[in-house]
Write a structure and sequence with these properties.
330 residues, alpha/beta, Rossmann fold, 2 domains, eight-stranded mixed sheet, 8 strands, 45% helix, 14% strand, globular
Length: 330
């Protein structure tokens, strides 16, 4: 499986679900399943300069500005996907962001994609005046951190102590340029405007088995039903046109050369059965980053923070301790 194939499959699955729900007279599915969110995680909002609005969860809105853990989710997910890792708020300030066009965040006129997410990260770090922060990104969230390192050196040197990558990559091994991607995505974009008409013309539409199958394929050997439900609900809440606008920035992502010059402590964790960002991509990250450690979790898939929450939480805690200690000593 590759990102282009999964992207087209996910988009098709969302379209099928939208048609079915439109025909049934139903509104949009809830954005997330019920999760046991740590009561310390408070909803916060930040207005963006392009007219967008960033939603994030913050365990200490008026708390320490040093050593904050900032969590960035992957495409079609949202801030609550890290709910197991919110336990870190017992020892750290924890912030979990809804990337633009995900969850409760609203994209502005700048559009959507990895570079725009990186710019929003700059805005958040500056607005909250965070220092010695530890950035953790899953999948596209990790790519956002890579783009942030490549494009915003002054900010990370001032405000970041360490970086972590969960099931992510510094490049797309099957690079697909926009002139190739856009013709493939154009028909799906056109269909998003025709969902009500399609619902009138098409007979009974089956449940969104395609979308659920695609989500299941992103997990490893032993997914819990509640984790699948959380991921499916987030996926079904994603607007198709937003997803299609984001996909090209994933397909053309490559920041490995820029990461070579980043001396920050880095931790990388990946599942051995991750078929979207396989272990070879984490090894490429480890080779690029001068101060990186790598852990490969046997049997783990792409949604590692849900599948193996203890291992991911431990990785983040260790990286935070190592990063802040290094920053204090330097």
């Amino acid at each position: 499986m590759n990102w282009l194939g999964l992207g087209l499959g996910l988009a098709g699955g969302v379209l099928a679900e939208r048609v079915a729900r439109s025909r049934a007279g139903l509104g949009q599915m809830p954005a997330i399943a019920e999760v046991q969110r740590d009561e310390r995680m408070a909803d916060q909002y930040l207005d963006l300069t392009d007219g967008g609005r960033l939603h994030y969860l913050d365990s200490e809105p008026d708390g320490s500005r040093d050593g904050t853990i900032v969590l960035l989710h992957g495409v079609t997910l949202n801030a609550d996907i890290w709910h197991h890792q919110f336990a870190l708020s017992s020892a750290h300030r924890v912030i979990s962001i809804d990337l633009r066009a995900h969850g409760q965040s609203v994209a502005g006129s700048a559009g959507m994609g990895i570079p725009e997410n990186a710019a929003d990260l700059v805005t958040l770090l500056d607005a909250l005046d965070l220092r010695r922060s530890v950035l953790i990104g899953h999948s596209m969230g990790g790519m956002t951190i890579g783009r942030f390192i490549a494009d915003h050196e002054a900010t990370w040197r001032k405000r970041v102590a360490g970086i972590g990558f969960v099931s992510s990559a510094g490049r797309q091994p099957k690079h697909v340029p926009r002139p190739v991607v856009n013709p493939l995505l154009a028909p799906l974009r056109a269909l998003t405007d025709r969902i009500p008409a399609l619902a009138d013309r098409i007979g009974d539409v089956p449940a969104n088995d395609l979308g659920e199958a695609m989500v299941r394929a992103s997990f490893g050997s032993t997914p819990r039903p509640e984790d699948l439900r959380l991921t499916i609900d987030a996926f079904e809440a994603m607007e198709v046109d937003a997803f299609l606008e984001i996909v090209p920035s994933i397909l053309e992502h490559n920041v490995l050369d820029a990461l070579v010059a980043c001396p920050l402590p880095a931790s990388i964790i990946v599942g051995s059965r991750d078929n979207l960002t396989p272990p070879r991509e984490s090894r490429a990250l480890e080779r690029a980053l001068p101060n990186a450690t790598l852990e490969i979790v046997p049997g783990g898939g792409h949604q590692l923070m849900l599948e193996r929450p203890d291992e991911v939480t431990a990785m983040i805690a260790e990286l935070a301790a190592r990063s802040v200690s290094r920053a204090v000593a330097s």
